[in-house]
Amino acid sequence: MAPLVTFCLRMGDTALILGQQTAAWCGHAPVLEEDIAFANMGLDLIGQTQLWYGLATEAEGAGRTPDDLAFLRSERQFLNAQLAERPNVDFAHALMRQYLFDAWHLPMQEALCHSSHDGIRGLAQKTVKEVRYHIDRSRELIVRLGDGSDESHARMQGALDALWPYAADLLVTDAVEAELAQQGVVPGLDRVRTAFDAETAATMARATLAIPDTGQARTGGRTGIHTEAMGYILAEMQSVPRAFPDARW
Amino acid sequence: MRPDLDTVRDWLGEVPDPEIPAISVVDLGIVRDLAWQDDTLVVTVTPTYAGCPATLVIALDIETALHCRGLAKVAVRQQMSPPWSTDWISDAGRRKLRDYGIAPPQLNAANCAGMLSAQTAACPQCGSENTEMLAGRGSTPCKAQFRCRDCREPFDYFKAI
Q1: How many C-beta atoms surround the C-beta of residue A180 within 10 A?
Q2: Which residues of B touch A33 (CB under 8 A)?
Q3: A119 to each of A55, A63, B152, how far by Cα in Å?
Q4: pTM for the complete prediction?
Q5: Which terminus of chain A faces fewer neighbouring Cβ atoms within 10 Å, N or C?
Q6: Are the C-beta atoms of residues A137 and A87 closer than 8 Å to each other?
């Protein structure tokens, strides 16, 4: 697969799987405002997925559509970061997953605003404005609940301990990104990690949460290696198009 | 029939946004370009939010409205760059939003986009600036919920982006 297609799939798949997980909060969040917020967040992410899949299918030129990519690929063909597929568990987990994603997503989109690739630059300049609103919400909630009651603090710390190793999967780079970086398609990757580290350190300090120092890193999602949670997500997400192939409205 | 483009623009000024029918797609600033390509009218529109479910409906509504005006061949194209900003909502659009009960977005969006704490809204009911934000997200991703401390009415605020 061409590096450009791989990269677009890594971005699009991460947005789609997180969007799917996030949308599952519709009707279940602890308060109405957060219910709406998660649903809106999921909508933004799935919209962004369509843009990434549009670029991927265009670059691929094989006649596949964005829907084909979402619904007709199997687990090992999905290149999302493992963080996105981690289960909803409770509000603390969902929020921490969202925040860690946002802390990477914002600097990534800011970097891509300077891409040499017209399509990626246009996409990033559009979506970066939405992503700023995403982190504005998740950051404030992390602080409020981390530095909140004993119960909320314990839950947020538990979520951070569980999810921190998976954040590493957002930040790993390989030959694909290296080649695209050289062409200026994916610029400034070193700054993405620096920005992620600074953002999370400052926010966790405000939230009185401790970043775990285990040195564990769960990676592999971006090459198609997933956790046990992934198959269940696809089974649900793809069930209708799989049962009724080529169905149209 | 090839009516001039100003006439077409006036027609599109009557096509309501499906989510906020008080304002038209022209007021919203999403009609980027009108052009004739032979006997086809090409309407270039820009999406508001990447995931806005109204995008497809808007394209369909534009086509339908122009077909009703007698234009046989209409093509609606999407253009993403440069990205849409709430600064592109026309003055008439901002007035219509307010009349409809939605506080229009703060201008110079680039200075405050993404930071709700940096945005304020005057109450669309009584005009008071003594208002407070209740929630950062509302019935659609583009809105936040506010309350007026004077007349006590809750209202939607169209976020700057």
Answers
A1: 22
A2: 134-137, 145
A3: 7, 18, 46
A4: 0.94
A5: C
A6: no
- Across chain A, the runs of DSSP E, i.e. the strands, are none
The answer to whether residue A136 neighbours chain B at the CB level (below 8 Å) is yes
Does position B11 have pLDDT exceeding 80, yes or no? yes
In contact, B104 and B91? CB cutoff 8 Å: no
Q: Tell me which chain B residue has its CA closest to the CA of residue A44.
A: B51
Cα separations (Å) of B132 from A135, A169, B135, B147? 21, 39, 9, 5
Q: Compare all CA atoms of chain B with the CA of A139 and give the residue at the minimum distance.
A: B115
Report the Cα B2 to chain-centroid distance in Å.
27
Nearest CA in chain B to A118: B81
Contact B51 A37 (CB under 8 A): no
Q: What is the ipTM of this complex?
A: 0.88
Can you count the helices (H) and strands (E) in chain B? 3, 7
**Which of the 8 DSSP states describes residue A93?**
H
Contact B115 A136 (CB under 8 A): yes
Residues in chain A: 249
Chain center to CA of A164: 14
Q: How far is B85 from chain A, CA to nearest CA, in Å? A: 9
**Do the Cβ atoms of A99 and A170 come closer than 8 Å?**
no
Residue A216: is its pLDDT beyond 90? no
Residues of chain B in contact with residue A137, where contact means CB-CB under 8 angstroms, are 136-137
CB atoms within 10 A of CB B118: 12
Chains A, B: CB contacts under 8 A, how many? 79
